[in-house]
Amino acid sequence: MIGHLLKTPQESVTRPLRASTLQMGRLTVFVLSCLKRVPVFKWVSSPDLARNGLMLLAMMGVLTGCVGAATQLPTGSGPDRAPNLTKSQRDTLAQAPDPVVTALPKSKTGNPEQYEVWGKTYRVTDSAEGYQAEGLASWYGAKFHGRRTSSGEVFNMYRLTAAHRSLPIPVFARVTNLQNGRSTIVKINDRGPFHENRIIDLSYGAAVKLGFENAGTAKVRVETLTQSEQVVPLQEDNESRYYHAGSFNTAEEAQSALQQMLSLEAVSGQVVARAAGGFALRFGPVSSSAKSERLRALLLTLDIGLPKLVLGR
């Protein structure tokens, strides 16, 4: 979603392009990328954007085979903004369930080998496996609600989605707010943000769930997920569940991390040997969803490693 590179929640930013020109340029880029005539998001000068946009309007009546190419032009302008919600509605949004992690094919649009924005070239990685990064997250909302994302999906600011500059899309990731321990799973299906000090742009709904919709930005950790890495939800049954976390070369390193954790949380934990070699930590049994979420957030905040909830021992 190239358009949101010009928006900065809760901040004032000088906009290099007028909104109308930018919107025309976004649609031009989307259609041309579908026709495979130019790399996705190859930006040109403002006059060229306008000229190409007018040419595009003449073409729209005969374009076929590119879903969404002839949809109505976006009409949002000015700075991005949050929707007008009541406290009760925001509270409901904050409790939105995580999306189910599934294996997804790469989208037909939004995955060029490289693309250029504001004179800088970005490369899309071949795989998202094992990606982990920490940095600032921002969010985008009402201005872009209903527009098409880089992958071709329609952006819904209430859904748990996100934009990333280089990961192949779509892909699922867990995002954790390192300032309050809250986390959520999002579907990354868009491109951005193009501010150098930010690593991900989240939907407004994801920002509410992570608790930084008013601040505009937050320090987060982003970790891509596969189906096997999604947390097992707690159920009302008699099966015990434990968190496994960390990977340590020696038992001493694992024991030090365990003591740090136990000094902050009253939980049963121990050092265990990993089948692949080295050592890990095991905590539990975990008896409730609330305790599970608190324990998971604390493990992430302490940077012990991505915890996995497993059945049995």
Describe this structure in words.
There is one protein chain. The chain is α+β, with helices and mostly antiparallel strands. The protein folds into three domains: 2-59, no CATH class; 87-228, RlpA-like domain (Barwin-like endoglucanases, Beta Barrel), CATH 2.40.40.10; 241-311, Alpha-Beta Plaits (2-Layer Sandwich). It has helices spanning 19-34, 46-59, 87-94, 204-210, 251-262, 289-301, and strands at residues 114-117, 120-123, 132-140, 161-163, 171-177, 183-190, 198-203, 217-224, 241-248, 269-273, 279-283, 308-311. A six-stranded mixed β-barrel has the order 3-7-4-6-5-8. It has a four-stranded antiparallel sheet with strand order 10-11-9-12, with helices on one face. A two-stranded antiparallel sheet has the order 1-2. Helix 1 (19-34) crosses helix 2 (46-59) and helix 3 (87-94) packs across helix 4 (204-210). The chain is globular, with a radius of gyration of 22 Å. It starts with 18 loop residues before the first helix and ends with a strand.
Short key terms for the protein model shown above:
Alpha-Beta Plaits; 6-stranded mixed barrel; alpha+beta; 313 residues; 22% helix; globular; 12 strands; 3 domains; 4-stranded antiparallel β-sheet
Quick overview of this protein structure:
It is built from 6 helices and 12 strands. The strands form 3 sheets. A 6-stranded mixed β-barrel has the order 3-7-4-6-5-8. A 4-stranded antiparallel β-sheet has the order 10-11-9-12, with helices on one face. It is α+β, with helices and mostly antiparallel strands.
